[in-house]
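lol ok so funny story. i was supposed to be doing the assay writeup but got distracted and ended up predicting the structure for this chain instead. priorities right. anyway since i did it might as well share w the group, maybe its usefull for someone
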Amino acid sequence: MMVYVVWLTPDATAWASGGGGPMDNSTSLGTFPPDSLSPSQLPLLVNPWDIVLCSSGTLIACENALVVLVIWQNPALRAPMFLLIGSLALADLLAGLGLVLHFTCAYLVRSDAAQLLTVGLVVASFSASVFSLLAITIDRYLSLYYALTYNSERTAAFTYTMLVLLWGLSLCLGLLPVTGVNCLAEEATCSVVRPLTKNNIAVLSVSFLLLFGLMLQLYVQICKIVMRHAHQIALQHHFLAATPHYVTTRKGVSTLAIILGTFAACWMPFTVYSLIADYTYPPLYTYATLVPATYNSVINPVIYAFRNQEIQKALWLVCCGCVPASVAQRARTPSDV
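and the output, tada:
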């Protein structure tokens, strides 16, 4: 759900102040000048926030392209967990490309069709990213709750079903602006993200809150399972609270809290703001809540891919042709959950 403030305006500070009318206050994915002006007569005012978003998109695309490449080229990374991590990386990769393409189209192509296509791509990609995070959370819960049967064919079938559903739903959400659910014809229905309508973005925001609540519940259950397993092992081996296993278990629970807290910190400000605000609000507020949301796609590879031991090995093989002994011999601990 990425956007761009009106970028052609006589007032170069309008992007920060919100301008003098309703349309000036609307955060837009492209506002086009009168047809009477030739391209050479148009002032090309580049919004600094747009540059930030385009730079974020470039970083997101490069980061996640590396993860997708590693998983695609390594036949050993075909377990359900790696398929879901690959889905997350692919979604974030498309989101990053969408940001870059939208910046390019907004300043060079200047057409409603390009505007709708790029915003559709961004909406679909970020929706797939959030859905993939939920799928990863479900997979982690199932791997602990059904530890003995997790690697069965039924688990693989369930994973493929989740992937089909999440990408199908994301595609439908991305097609809404393209198929006519937009505010280009009626500005009064615009949300803080033009050309998305107020109803459209409300559905996206409420869906996010529901998904976040479900993820929170699942992570609470995961923490309970991890702590229960650690307690059982401690009783069997007469461990004390200060033993390394207990320490790593607490580290695993802290890691889960950091994962969920990071996700909420990135997306919650924009989600809440988009519910309470409308197109008359200054675009500066939209950018201030929107930019952090893109950072979630920058952080995702670090949390879900680069920390994984198997992906670390594959990365070392791709980059250096070898695997350091410290990586090859590191045992999996509860902190890797």
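The chain has one domain: 48-186+194-314. The beta strands are 4-5, 27-28.
back to the writeup now i swear
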